[in-house]
Amino acid sequence: MIDLYTDSSPNGFKATIALEELALPYRLHHVRIGAGEHRRPDFLALNPHGRIPVITDDETGITLFESAAILLYLAEKTGRLLPAPAAARWEAIKWLQFHASSVGPIIGQRVHFERFAGTRIPAAVERYQRLTEDVFGVLDQRLADHAYLAGDDYSIADIAHFGWTHIARIIDFDFSRHRHLSAWHERVAARPAVRKGVTLPAPATDA
Predict the structure, then answer these.
(1) Which of 52, 118, 121, 188 has the least CB density, counted as fewest CB within 10 Å?
(2) Whole domain around residue 45: which residue ranges?
(3) Number of domains in the chain
């Protein structure tokens, strides 16, 4: 059985969506970041960085944090959500890494500077708005000729990116002018496992 420790956030939704897509049995533990539960000793024993999501798998004895690592693990465990042909498999991994190293951090910084920074810093807001548009443009270009980021097949790369485009929509980071990205977002959002995954452990109402 897998235990998932998470909260309602773009990174957390990646894990819940993947587990729902794969129909893996799991126990859900709500780590309420707003209440400081991610800083409790029992959670820090799982992830010393105090970030969600975290999974433990009592079948293998493996504990993992970092959403990209969790997505790769679940795909490897089940043989699903990671295309079998080598070229498509590496496309999925490449776009997963693009998300982990660029898209997630950039949008996360934009969220911080636009929504939560105590002092508004116009130069920082402008920088991360521009960088967000840049990565949206890269994704839009890729999706102009491909149904999904790895090619024809839905994969963990799509789940990773959707976690943040879902939040972008909620907080009005408009990407509608990127029509291929917008169409992809709607395709992914319509999947039953995705619709359920973004409600666990609770729907997001802000970043």
Answers:
(1) 118
(2) 2-80
(3) 2
Quickly tell me which residue has 């939040």 as its tokens. Answer: 167
92 and 73, same structural domain?
no
Angle between helices 156-170 and 67-78 (to 10 degrees): 140
For 119-173, how does the pLDDT look when each residue is reduced to its tens digit (9 = 90+)? 999 999 999 999 999 999 999 999 999 999 999 999 999 999 999 999 999 999 9
End-to-end CA distance of the chain: 30
What CATH number does residue 138 fall under?
A: 1.20.1050.10
CB neighbour list of residue 116: distance below 8 Å, 6 or more residues apart? 207
CB 64 within 8 A of CB 15: no
Report if residue 197 sits inside a domain: no
Greatest CA separation found in the chain? Answer: 50
Q: Residues, the chain, total?
A: 207
Residue given tokens 């493996």 in the structure block = 62
User: Are residues 172 and 104 both part of a single domain?
Assistant: yes
Task: Count other Cβ atoms within 10 Å, centred on residue 103.
Answer: 23
Q: Can you name the residues that pair with 4 across neighbouring β-strands?
A: 28, 55
